[in-house]
């Protein structure tokens, strides 16, 4: 298996995937919250972009998971307490879960919708409905509620994740953040 030894930094591919997916998710959350407001202009276009970028996150997350399974990340510092190491692994696991579950919930929501609104990814590729789902308002509402809960969980995790990264950088000064930065080697 390629790259099974621990190295000091994440691989370049892992770094590019991390920051691309991170930016997409932050954009999805910000515009996801804004697009549901009545006063927001161009809502239809923003909904379409939201769905397009959400499916992009799903595709990139598949690539990322495959890459992650084939390339071990650098080890956490030995000085890091056990509970922090466990918390870090747990947070990353939940992140991976949400990176798959959130787009699938969004996709399921629009698939279950009985409104005749097609999703066309980036205005080019029509998104088919997920198979096996009935088109019902009640089912759509259920996926919508779960999508909202997932969004809140995502926001909470991002705050925790950024807080932990800043603690490593400015309090522990152990170089953990630098391993994921494209600059500042
Ligand atoms: C990582 C991927 C995604 C994230 C982080 C995300 C995030 C969000 C957020 C924060 C909202 C606003 C929720 C609220 O009203 O509180 C939202 C709404 C929505 N999302 Fe996503 N989303 C993702 C993927 C998708 C995908 C792939 C689709 C469809 C293909 C989708 C369809 C929708 C729709 C239709 C709404 C509006 C629901 C409503 O009318 O209230 N999302 N999303």
TrEMBL record:
<keyword id="KW-0812">Transmembrane</keyword>
<comment type="similarity">
    <text>Belongs to the cytochrome b561 family.</text>
</comment>
<keyword id="KW-0479">Metal-binding</keyword>
<keyword id="KW-1133">Transmembrane helix</keyword>
<protein>
    <submittedName>
        <fullName>Cytochrome b</fullName>
    </submittedName>
</protein>
<feature type="domain" description="Cytochrome b561 bacterial/Ni-hydrogenase">
    <location>
        <begin position="9"/>
        <end position="182"/>
    </location>
</feature>
<keyword id="KW-0249">Electron transport</keyword>
<dbReference type="Pfam" id="PF01292">
    <property type="entry name" value="Ni_hydr_CYTB"/>
</dbReference>
<keyword id="KW-1003">Cell membrane</keyword>
<feature type="transmembrane region" description="Helical">
    <location>
        <begin position="149"/>
        <end position="170"/>
    </location>
</feature>
<keyword id="KW-0472">Membrane</keyword>
<keyword id="KW-0349">Heme</keyword>
<keyword id="KW-0408">Iron</keyword>
<dbReference type="InterPro" id="IPR052168">
    <property type="entry name" value="Cytochrome_b561_oxidase"/>
</dbReference>
<feature type="transmembrane region" description="Helical">
    <location>
        <begin position="12"/>
        <end position="34"/>
    </location>
</feature>
<feature type="transmembrane region" description="Helical">
    <location>
        <begin position="87"/>
        <end position="110"/>
    </location>
</feature>
<feature type="transmembrane region" description="Helical">
    <location>
        <begin position="46"/>
        <end position="67"/>
    </location>
</feature>
<keyword id="KW-0813">Transport</keyword>
<dbReference type="InterPro" id="IPR016174">
    <property type="entry name" value="Di-haem_cyt_TM"/>
</dbReference>
<dbReference type="InterPro" id="IPR011577">
    <property type="entry name" value="Cyt_b561_bac/Ni-Hgenase"/>
</dbReference>
